[in-house]
Design brief:
9 helices
Length: about 180
């Protein structure tokens, strides 16, 4: 994360095989758990990637837009929309797509090797493929629940289907194939 930039090179020199960071702030009441794991603003993200690029080690990112998430959470809560389905609404597909695009641009400019973790949208997959064609070292990863479940699972399983990034529409799930 952006609060531990001075630790990146020593960690790489000690044999670490990869880094991972979240692009959102630590959840309320959980700041201690997220020390060294977050880079919520664009300037810090770029600086982090410059530093990691110096090591040749890969860095994985959750493609989340901190500003969009916070704004949506505030709006949805003020409207009384707090059921599990609104967790996904606070993290719309465009947030993943925009952040994936930004991370891939930063990877191109810094030479960082990147992994976009838990991709849930066909558009983000396409962005990774396009970046690879331009010579960017980028990989994408998803999880079984994004391939086999859609946001309707929240109606059936409630909070047990609440994941980050959230489950998407059936159309987006199908597009992942």
């Amino acid at each position: 994360g952006s609060d531990c930039l001075d630790d990146i090179i020593p960690c790489a020199e000690s044999g670490i095989v990869a880094f991972k960071t979240f692009l959102h702030e630590a959840p309320p009441g959980r700041k201690e758990e997220f020390i060294g794991l977050t880079a919520p603003n664009t300037g810090d993200q770029y600086e982090l990637m410059e530093k990691v690029a110096q090591t040749g080690v890969m860095i994985g990112f959750h493609a989340e837009n901190n500003d969009m998430i916070n704004k949506n959470i505030t709006r949805l809560r003020s409207e009384g929309k707090t059921s599990p389905i609104y967790h996904g609404r606070s993290r719309p597909p465009v947030a993943e797509i925009e952040t994936t695009s930004k991370i891939l641009l930063f990877a191109e400019k810094t030479g960082a090797k990147v992994e976009i973790c838990h991709i849930t949208t066909p558009e983000a997959v396409e962005l990774v493929n396009e970046a690879k064609c331009k010579g960017v070292y980028a990989i994408a990863e998803t999880c079984p629940h994004y391939l086999f479940l859609n946001e309707d699972a929240l109606n059936k399983f409630s909070v047990f289907a609440k994941v980050n990034p959230p489950l998407r529409s059936e159309e987006e799930r199908q597009g992942m194939w």
